[in-house]
Write a structure and sequence with these properties.
Creatine Kinase, Chain A, domain 2; 18 strands; alpha+beta; 6-stranded antiparallel β-sheet; 4-stranded mixed β-sheet
Amino acid sequence: MAIPKVIGTETEYGIAAVGQPDFNPVLSSSMLISSYAGSLRRIRWDYEDESPLRDARGFEPVAGRELSDEDLGLANVILPNGARYYVDHAHPEYSTPECLSPRSLVIHDKAGERILERSLAIVAAEIPSSPALAIYRNNSDGKGNSYGTHENYLMDRATPFGDIVRDLTPFFVSRQIFTGAGKLGLEAQWDERGKHVFQLTQRADFFETEVGLETTLKRPIINTRDEPHADPERYRRLHVIVGDANLCEVALFLKLGTTSIVLKMIEDAFLPDFSLVNPVAAIHDVSRDVSLRTPVSLTDGRKMTALQLQWEYLELARKYVDREDDTQENREVVERWESVLRGLESDPRTLSAQLDWVAKLRLLEGYRERDGLAWSDAKLRAIDLQYHDVRRDRGLFHRLAHSGKVERLTTDEEVERAIMEPPEDTRAFFRGRCISKYPDAIAAASWDSLILDTGRDALQRIPMREPLRGTRAHVEELLDACEDAAALVDRLTG
């Protein structure tokens, strides 16, 4: 039986300073994070159990990487909501706390956007001499450089990794039709076609291989990093790097919900073989076809469009949910999935309130018609970028949302609460509550442990290897009874 899908996202945000030729993105990102974090900056991230070079195919790391100034600096904090906020590859990155449902993760992912927006306001108010910064929730600088939006899913270690590769690759290639954030232009260096094509996704141009460990060069469709952040004998963490940064909540919900169900089907050996002849070429071709008519070749000789492949996955998911995992949220995922596929089949323009690529394309086409612009016009590229601005008074997506042209699955109150409050049904509750209640006693933290300084001779590590332990139901009474960290340690070790 498939295990629950504890899930999380990691989003690297684009950062820019207009009119600043000597702009330093690392320093500016550090300034954003440090200003927002305040006194929490002194809690360091614990790297002891991290091994980003360990490979799920069984390879051992050649050597551990040296920790950079970015890793060891102040701009790497754990927040009271259980999230991590830090500098990664010269970008501010927000990693959500662990969530147990797609809708909960949508709320906490959106809280990250608000934290980035709030960080900008704090820097502008407290450091008026700093350059005017802009933050974008996107995946490309338009100059051939990409930054990631990663998903993480808890999986059963017993599931053969080869099964994951076989069954998940066609799904990732085809899910672009509803997960894509849309992009004007092509950035693949090998692509000789016109550079002013609108495509479904921001990330497809940057994938060059089917399976691999890299995340910044020769990016693979299936990433093999084997760093579970949990009991390694029982679990693996599937690290997904192939997705876009979604602003539309329906698209984000579907990305997380459909993938969670597909992974459960893989664990339960519920799927037939949809293997593709050339997945890398297919992921590029699907992204470049807004008509959704380009067929991809399967190894069994069939040819199917991405839309047809998604219908196959959906029908199997419907049977799986009915027989094996009939929950209210799974039913909602399946119903949403079907509704979106029907819309894509009949007229994608009807989905402009739900899917980012459709909303953006409609926006660009509106400006083209109004101003008589060619697809090559620089103004359209500026509009493309402005769609992703996290500032609600500046971002074009947020203007659409404010005018009621985007469907919401969350409320402002839920997102605001998630800025400070952790999810209640995963170990993130324990981490977040400890940071709120005992901030001066936390020496370091990671996803699967806390290190407490209680004033005694030795620091005390509290392991958190089970993602579904440390929930509100498990630990709220314990935390309420412990006035300080020393009392907590005594209760846990007594």
